[in-house]
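Board notes (copied after class):
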Amino acid sequence: MLALLLSFLVGGARLAVPEGLPTAPFDLAPGRQVIELRAPLVARAPGARLVLFVPALARAGSDDSLRAATLMAALPPASVSAVLSSADGHRLELVHSGYRSYHGQVGLVLTEVAAGAGNVAYTTLELDSRIRLQNVRAVWLDQPVRRVEDLELGW
């Protein structure tokens, strides 16, 4: 118990929600859709991102220029946005900020519009989409890190 108290005092009162896969794979339909979260999401530092990987696009061409053209056609800019909400009324808006490729998987990156309040546990994810995507895998990156890790799928 003393070790736990000491680690709390040294580490601070930061919520311990790991980066990784916050949802089960889902199909995204046009319109507004509420996605069930496995655990609350926390934006610990400015630059938090949600990456929506679309496995069907992984096979979209072998060379980079063909893949970029395919991505732009399948995931046009501003085609998906998101809002995270907490139980106490905090909101974090996320908008399209680019594309990401990781171990052959490609996807759309949604980045916060303005830095959220630190250590807020966001419990609701709403996606607003103008396109239809199947078998989407969402990865939450709550700190400005370089690596993308999918804790559940192990890509």
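Comment from the instructor: The longest helix spans residues 64-74. Strands lie at 26-28, 31-35, 41-42, 49-53, 80-86, 91-102, 105-112, 121-129, 133-141.
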